[in-house]
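Provenance and format

Records in this collection were gathered into a single text stream. Each protein contributes a sequence line and a token line. The two records reproduced below are adjacent in the stream.
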Amino acid sequence: MTLQDRINTFEAEARGRIRRALATGNEKLMELDGALAKVARNDWTVPGMRRHLHELRARAENLRANTLKRVEALPGEAVTKLASGTRTPVQNLAKAIGEWAKRMEPPRPKPVETKAAEAKGDGKAESKVAKAS
């Protein structure tokens, strides 16, 4: 490969990189133009901003009202589904809740034999309950 060939390949690579950089720059300029057009369309006057805030408040109030209706209807739906469901799912649910409750309860203390009772050798070992700490 001669010096001229190397210069030509270097020049071709440089032109490709410049084209890619210009294309990326043009894309970013187009995005910026779009964003500026959106901002320019908005009414930034005091009456325009007041109108926009009023619209947002109305949307928030409607959303709140719809949410409250759904929340109020939720317990009724749960009872309906429990009542209309078959017996087996309800029994399985009760069994699972019972098992979960057993796991949540603290374990019962185990009886502990004292060394004094063993030393007496009565044959009767007095059992005492360990204190939970």
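Adjacent record:
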Amino acid sequence: MYKKLEAKWNATLIGTRFGDVKGVALDRAQEGLGMVATVRNLVRPILDAYGVTGARGLYLSFATALLRHVIRQKGAAATAYATGLKAYFSTTHKLDPAILDEIIQVVVGWAIQY
């Protein structure tokens, strides 16, 4: 198996392919990182208002997971994803459903434009 991989692997060709798409990849990465940063900045005030300190990372994880799904799905599908993620995070991680509802409103309201 290794000999087949070694025979197919051409470092020059692979390097050229990566070089050709580098600009597109960097543009997409920058756009995605900007969206994540925006969601984090929208969610932090909610967490501050509720006095959340220890589980901030889990709430931010919920927000970014929600973002990942609602930028791909709209309408009823986005609602189903949000409901499922809320149930998962509130049950598994014992997060406050009221806070999750506010995060859903902020993230879905912001991301639905995309």
